[in-house]
Amino acid sequence: MSTTARTGHGRSWVRRIGIAAIVAYCLAPFYWMVVSSLRRPADQFSNALVPSPVSFDNYAAAFDERNGFGRALFNSLLVAGTTTVITLVVAISAGYAVARLDFRGKSLVLTLVIACSMFPPITMVVPLLELFTDAGWINTYQAMIVPSMSFALPLAVWNLSAFFRQMPAELESAAQVDGCTPAQAFRKVILPLAAPGVFTTAILVFIMSWNEFLIAVSVVNERQKMTSNVIVALFTGQYKFDQPFGTQMAAGVVVTLPLVIAVLVFQRRIVDGLTAGGLK
Amino acid sequence: MSVITPTRRSPRTPASRPARSTRRAGTGRLAAALLSPTFLVLGLVIGYPVVAALRLSFQVSSESIDPETGFKVTRTSFGLDNYSTVFTGENFLRPWWNTTSFALASVTLEVLIGVAMALVMHRALRGRALVRAAVLVPWAIPTAISGLLWKWIFNSEGVANDLLNSKILWSTDGFHAWASVVIADTWKTAPFIGLLVLAGLQVIPGELYEAARVDGASSWRTFWRITLPLVRPALVVAVLFRILDVLRMFDLPYLLVGPRKHSVETLSMIAFQEMSNLRFGTAAAYATVLFAYVAVVAFAFVKLFGADLIGRGTRSQR
């Protein structure tokens, strides 16, 4: 933006090489996952850059009945989706309060929210696993959803408060002059206008819960309830000790593809959300 | 925070504006109401576990046979046995060293690569959307999946050995395993740091650079004297969050190398291991110690580098 002054020809191709290097750095491993998944299982150890012939056998193997991968995808969707919805419902009001209301102890509230986002998940998982065992929550969805809120909620509160703060303060003043209470001003004026921010936060929270591993691997030991991240790691090959990388890469592509598409479609929003929140 | 007592209120707000002060009290109550669901959830999923882990970490259970009935009885008492397991024996320094060295090595690499990326992206006139999308891909891939992907890349017959023309057994154990985790983590998060630094770069006014050029400053000098000091706040916050993130790392070494591998076992992994073996007391002791470690690092970082964490949250207040 600020550097349009320098547009010499010599600089321009250096710049292009830099761009190409970044794109290659970011995409090469992902490309390798896609390529490996498209090889025939017999060509698994081929290191050719393009698979020939292209084969979808690995995908068929990933969705094989005995892996339970389809079910795991559904579980992931259910856990991440529910976490996102509950988190947003809880976080919207807190984000608004932090951004807009003038109350004592606000820095304390913010410090607590930030501190929670630094919290190591294992410290939470150990006692919760014991609690869930006693409560009969092992192998249930709620045992994954409730702990996931520990990282989702601070992120959501922080992001939403950043979005609410960007909106002009005159909006509420005008609404209150027109006779709205603060609560009405929030519901009828602010919330509809904050929809894009809420949506961005929803994407971020969904991606983070979709990617969660430690909680899911700790509180579930039944294949039927496992999320896709956990089950892909448990894929077994034809022989017990050989890790079926081709199948795992195919499953990895399936797990990752929705996120990559979301990233391509919503890149501007996601970048805004990440840099506004600055959390993760 | 919900109650604003009259004695506190009266010196602040002039008596001539009673309407504003009642609204303020009302605002306090509203804020408390709006914040309570969040704090209820955080209390349940963070507050309770911290206390419960602390309690659990002092709990020692011993099994013995009841001489009268012949049944096995489990007796629990409180003591420091779990902590003596954490702080003695072969498992004492290793997980600390792994956890800390991962944080130092990965975050250093990530900052170097991330800042370089941000500088290139900032200069890019065309293809910005493409770069931005590409940069988000590593971030979006689940760590668990990227662990498996890098395990495949670092397979003895994988593409890494092919490119390097080497025969290294990367993901077995030892330094190579450690390095493979650092590489995988750097790949995944350097672009993220790049994005945050880029956001910091974009708010630097262009006139500063023009002034520097008029004054005849070299681009190297401009970078050290203008760019770096001005992106420092954004960078410091990004680095703090990355360090804390690596200190609690679990999925990547767990899936890329595997459990019980000495060279990559982090504090989170060892706590998980103890938990899987139903030694909840020791697991809780490791988890509590990790929690304390993270807290100390965060506190020290904020004090040393003045990371303005909540400033960003309160800044644009009326």
TrEMBL record, chain A:
Cross-referenced InterPro entries: BP-dep_ABC_trans_perm, MetI-like, MetI-like_sf
Recorded topology in the membrane: Multi-pass membrane protein
Entry-linked Pfam families: BPD_transp_1
Domain of life: Bacteria
PROSITE patterns membership: ABC_TM1
ABC transmembrane type-1 domain mapped to chain residues: 73-266
Keywords (A to Z) from UniProt: Cell membrane, Membrane, Transmembrane, Transmembrane helix, Transport
Signal peptide: none
Localization: Cell membrane
GO cellular component entries: plasma membrane
Bilayer-crossing regions: 12-32, 73-96, 108-129, 141-164, 189-210, 245-266
GO biological process, one term: transmembrane transport
Family, as annotated: Belongs to the binding-protein-dependent transport system permease family.
Protein name: Sugar ABC transporter permease
Organism: Wenjunlia vitaminophila
Species classification: Bacteria, Bacillati, Actinomycetota, Actinomycetes, Kitasatosporales
